[in-house]
Structures are given as C-alpha cells and as structure tokens.
Specification:
Layout (H helix, E strand, L loop, with lengths): L1 H38 L8 E2 L17 E9 L5 E5 L6 E6 L5 E6 L5 E6 L10 E2 L2 E2 L5 E4 L3 E9 L3 H10 L4 E4 L4
Parallel strand pairs: 6-9
Antiparallel strand pairs: 1-2, 2-10, 3-6, 3-11, 4-5, 4-10, 7-8
C-alpha cells in the first residue's frame, strides 16, 4: 500500500511539474514581455524598430549585433490582424510568437515580401474581402491564433548604413487590425 501511495504522489508531482513547465511558465514569460513592451511605450499593432545592438543597448542576453530588429505587439481578441514585412536583399525573416512563446510562423524575407493574416477561431477574413489595408488576397497566409503575441522582423545589417536602411524599411511593414466586415 505504501508503494501505491508513493507512486501516486510521484505521478501527481511529475504531472504538476510538467504542467507548470509547459503551460504556466511560457505564458508568464510572454505576459512579462508584453507588459515590459507596453511600459516602454510600444504600441499595439504597430512595428517599431529597435536601436542598433551594442553592449550598451543589450537588454536580452546576447542579441546579435549584426541583426536589426523590429517588433510588433498584436492581439486578435477583437478581430484579425494583418502582418506584412518587406523583402530584404540578404538574410531576413518574419517570425510570429503566440502567447505561450511558441514560434508559430516563420517566413524568409530574402528577396521576397512576407505576409500573414492572424485570426482567432471562427473569425477568418474571406479571401477577396475588402479590409482597411486593401483586399485580402491569396498572397497572404492565414494563421489561427488566440489572443496576444509578438511579431518580429530580423534582418542582417552588420554595418551602420545597413542598419539605417533596415530601420527605414520598418515604415513599409504592416501590423494592424483588419476591418473587413
């Protein structure tokens, strides 16, 4: 009987630790990131370029000084969001992270634009429908996601000139709600 109780206690502890590690910790991390970005004035549904990474500007452990970064906080709770990043001549990517820190979408920007429409279940815009950013075309990927997340554009920009060019391209990136109805 003692072995049965010990086994049940062990199994319950293992399940609890697993659940905490897999479900609670990533959500806590993303909520902290969202709160920090909000406190820093990063608006919702708008890309903002970060300064060139140097030892003085590093907030994240060892971000690459050869990459330029632009980030957008989004939330699909009130409707779909379109995210689009312009092409880059060299390495570049658009990544989408959900509320559990999962990387749910990645697209290359090496010579081509990338675009995705994020929506919650049952709220997908119709292809060919009119939205605030124009027609929802077949050129957009669609992705079902719940709640808030982060979109990240990374581009190889090892020199000050390339970083300035990359920062200027952020104005051509889109991260906004779609009002297609």
């Amino acid at each position: 009987m003692r072995w049965v109780i010990a086994t049940l206690v062990f199994a319950a502890s293992a399940f609890g630790a697993h659940y905490f590690t897999i479900r609670a910790v990533p959500g806590f991390i993303m909520n902290k990131v969202q709160s920090t970005f909000q406190a820093q004035g990063l608006p919702l549904n708008h890309f903002v370029a970060s300064p060139r990474q140097t030892p003085e500007t590093q907030r994240v452990v060892r971000p690459s000084p050869d990459l330029s970064y632009a980030v957008c906080r989004f939330d699909v709770s009130d409707g779909p969001v379109v995210i689009s990043a312009p092409a880059w001549d060299g390495y570049g990517s658009l990544s989408i992270f959900d509320g559990q820190t999962n990387n749910v979408f990645v697209a290359s920007l090496d010579g081509q634009d990338a675009s995705v429409i994020l929506h919650k279940q049952g709220d997908a815009p119709e292809v060919g429908g009119r939205g605030s950013v124009g027609y929802v075309s077949e050129g957009h990927a669609t992705l079902q996601i719940s709640g808030a997340g982060i979109a990240l554009i990374r581009r190889l920009a090892p020199t000050d000139e390339r970083h300035e060019l990359s920062t200027a391209r952020v104005a051509d990136a889109i991260c906004e709600k779609i009002n297609w109805r």
